[in-house]
């Protein structure tokens, strides 16, 4: 994990529900293979986790976003995946899902709507957006031309795997 992240799993409860949180993770740009980067997610699946909430720092590609704003991911562009760098490569283990999963509705509409409603109720609607997240390899930031390219693809924010 990167500096400032302890690389720990923390187990606990929230409002009577069991939960597990990751304090940091491995990154492909640190030299880890993709199977190691995604391994904790597979462990979560085996632990019975039904809902995964992910946070990260990302760069904005949208002129209307301000530093400190939050973006709820509506859809994503997996640039490494388009070049065959996918965590689904290799033998398929049916415990983790089908060989060719649909990504049509990856980000639950009801959860996104609930988050937006809560933001509105607490007077923070102007700080939260829905958008398209683009994952790139890193660790370098994007060039001006790359940022323009990602905007034209419809990305609102960009981050590294």
Automatic annotation (TrEMBL):
EC number: 2.4.2.1
Annotated metabolic or biological route of this protein: Purine metabolism; purine nucleoside salvage
Cellular component GO terms, alphabetical: cytoplasm
Signal peptide interval: none
Domain of life: Eukaryota
Example GO BP: purine ribonucleoside salvage
Alphabetical UniProt keywords: Glycosyltransferase, Purine salvage, Transferase
Listed name of the protein: purine-nucleoside phosphorylase
GO molecular function, one term: purine-nucleoside phosphorylase activity
InterPro entries, sorted: Nucleoside_phosphorylase_d, Nucleoside_phosphorylase_sf, Purine_phosphorylase, Purine_phosphorylase-2_CS
Organism: Eleutherodactylus coqui (Puerto Rican coqui)
UniProt family annotation: Belongs to the PNP/MTAP phosphorylase family.
Domain Nucleoside phosphorylase: residue ranges: 4-159
Catalytic activity from the UniProt record: 2'-deoxyguanosine + phosphate = 2-deoxy-alpha-D-ribose 1-phosphate + guanine; guanosine + phosphate = alpha-D-ribose 1-phosphate + guanine; 2'-deoxyinosine + phosphate = 2-deoxy-alpha-D-ribose 1-phosphate + hypoxanthine; inosine + phosphate = alpha-D-ribose 1-phosphate + hypoxanthine
EC class (word): transferase
